[in-house]
Structures are given as C-alpha cells and as structure tokens.
C-alpha cells in the first residue's frame, strides 16, 4: 500500500512539475521575453505565490501534527474555522491589492514601460480576484495531504496548469503580436483555473463530511487552533524559501523590459532538478530520519547508527544528484534552454541570456543539496528556528545585492548561490561539529564534485560544451543534449564506484 502510494505521488509530482515547465514553455512561445511576458508571469504566479508564502506551507507544518489522532469531527471543525479566517483575510488582502494596484504593479514589475502600465494595473486586479480561491486551495490541499489522498493532492495543480497552457496556446495562435488584450483573456482563464481546482479538491473531499456531525455548542472546542507563536514560525519557515527567487526576479525586472521573464525562465532550468531530485530525496528521507531519531536511547547504539545511516544516505544521494544536474546544465545549458523556450516569439538573444544565467544558477544546486538535508534534520529534532535564521540570512544576501545595484541576471544568480551557501553553513552549524563528523560522508561527496569540476574543465577546453554566446539548433542541439545526459551519468557513476555510500542509499 505504501509503495503504491509513494509511486503514485512521485508520478503525479513529476507530471505536475513537467506540466509546470510546459506552461513556461507556452508562455515563452506566446510572449517571448517581452514586457508583456513580465506582466503575464507576475499575474499568473502572484496568487499561488502569496498563498504559498502566507498559508500553504504553514498550514502543513501546523495542522498536520494538530490533526494527528484527532476525530473527523475535530478535523472538520478546525478546517472550517481556518477556512473562514482565510476567506475573510484573503478578501481583505485582495481589496488592498485592488485599491493599491498601481503601487503594487510598480513594486513587482519596476522595469515595465509606460505603455504597459495599464496592463500591469489590470494584472494586479485579476490576481487579487484569484487570491481567495488560491488561499482556500492551500487549506484543502493540506487536508488532502493529511488524508493521504495523493491523487487529489497532486492532480489539483495539473488542473491549473492544464487550463493555463490552453490559455497561452490560444493566445499564441490567435492573439496579437503586441499583446494587446492579453491581460483580460489570461485573467478570465486564471479565474477558471483556480475555481476548477477548488471544484476538484472539493469533489475529492466529499467523503470526509459524512462523519462531520457534531453539536453546534461543541464546535468551538473541537475547532481550537494552535497558538500564534507556532503559526509565526511556520509561516516564516515555509514562506522564506519561496521569497528568495521571487525577490531576485523582481530586482531583475528593474533592469528593463523582459528581464523578469528571462530571469524566470533561467530559474526554471535550476528549479526542475532542485524539486524533482534534491528536495524529493530530502522528503523521502524524512520518515526514516524521524523514525531513527525517535528511537534513539542512551543504551542502544543501533538506533544512533540508524540515524547516521539515514542522514548519510540522504546526503550522499542528494549531493550526487545535485552534481549530476549541475554537470548537465553547465555542459549543455544553451541546448536545454533552446528546447524548452526557443519557440514562438522568443528572441535568440534572450535564449543566450537564459542559458548563461541558468549556468550560473546551476552552481547553487550544490549548497541547496546540503541545505535540504540539514533542514530535514532540524525539522526532525524540533529546531526550526535555525532553519528560519538560515533562510533569513539567504534573503538578506539577495536584498543587499539588489540594494547595491547588482541587479543583472547573472549577478542575482550569484547572490542566490551565495545566500544558499550561507544558509547551508548556518543550518549545519546549528547541528554542531560532532554531528557533521558523524553524518557527513566526505569521501562519498568528494568524488562526484571532483568529477563535476573535471568534466566542466575538459568540455570547455575541448569546446564540446554548447556555446553560451550563440543559439544552438539542429544536429548540434541533439549532440549537446546527449552530452548533457552523458555528463550527468558520468557524475553518478563516479559516486557509484567511489564507495558503497551511494549504492546503499539507493537500496534503502
């Protein structure tokens, strides 16, 4: 049962992320890296980003433990109470967004031209209208996660992305080249998408309310909520990681029209392996690490050894996959960028920038692998304050870079890399030197890194890597893609033959 559920969730997560990349591909085909692309990206992502920062992750951190062992009536009462708070709060926030749409647009898309200012203002209004549905979807997703309804949980985003891909395809074939009228069209599709997601989630949750009979007088007691301190740390812990790339792309927008879109596409090159490899490994390792930690006793070293084995396995696998993904991007970023975004109205010069900025962002996968495992351990031992501190430091690095004028795309990517590295140092420092000595398999981590560095040096020396200063197409593109796959496999093979750590991690 658990194997089936794990495979189903993995496949649905993979489908959701791939469809998300296809949405970006459709957006690139429809608008390229124009100012209208900047507007469309902000409008389509703002509702879910706000929901993710303010509630979605925090709800999982707070409500999942709160619901553990509770009755269905208690869970339903709590859910209904939180839903009321979210609806009223999101309606109030949406009203503020509508009232201050001009200032909000200037803050989020500072590089837009005067001719597109009205489009930006309209986009803020459409995003505000979609916000309540996005907030409620975050709560319902948390309940589906608690019920282990993986089909309902992950396929909800498939609904949204499918509708938006249809909208972008519709506009790319029938819309004007200037983008006139794009905002109202995409705004209508955005509302359809978020409400269809709610319909799907509600339909999946319909059996839950068959057991929700409880007296009105007891509803307040049943629906009690955790204290505000728990909510505060949960919001910070879940929201700060989502804020980093959002702030960076906003700074990038200040350099001119299309820069926000270009940075967004470049970040997608990094985000896909980050989510599907590094963060997935950390998530899958979480139960094993938690079980081993919970069973540790002073008189039983076997459970301490199990904790060490779980952490070392997760770290080895996450690091090896990070090095493999970085090798693929550093060897063939131009070809990958061309395949994903070189369609429709995308300019060749923008593809060059996407590839160059994505290559810089590839180095950030390495500290993020270390950070993902460290945060898993901190969550297990109940020291999430250090996780918040780590991400706050990373955000401070990005803010300082933007504040001193380092707003070019490659500069912001390097700022993100530095921020992630600083966060990883803080997170592992919070675990202590003795823990690092036990849990960090230096030899297992060293082999993939050395091979990664050697591959990058050799391919550039021999001229085998895609030229980031020119567009890649045709047979050269196919050759570059094979080089990407080969580089990733060589890195993984180095970890496989360097010692038993990677083999044990894959078997566990």
From TrEMBL:
Superkingdom as given in the UniProt entry: Bacteria
Sequence similarity: Belongs to the MurJ/MviN family.
Protein name as catalogued: Peptidoglycan lipid II flippase
Membrane topology annotation: Multi-pass membrane protein
Ranges that cross the membrane: 39-64, 85-111, 123-141, 153-171, 177-200, 230-252, 272-293, 314-342, 354-379, 386-405, 411-433, 445-466, 478-498
Key words of the record: Cell membrane, Cell shape, Membrane, Peptidoglycan synthesis, Transmembrane, Transmembrane helix
Record's subcellular location: Cell membrane
Function, as annotated: Involved in peptidoglycan biosynthesis. Transports lipid-linked peptidoglycan precursors from the inner to the outer leaflet of the cytoplasmic membrane.
A Pfam family it matches: MurJ
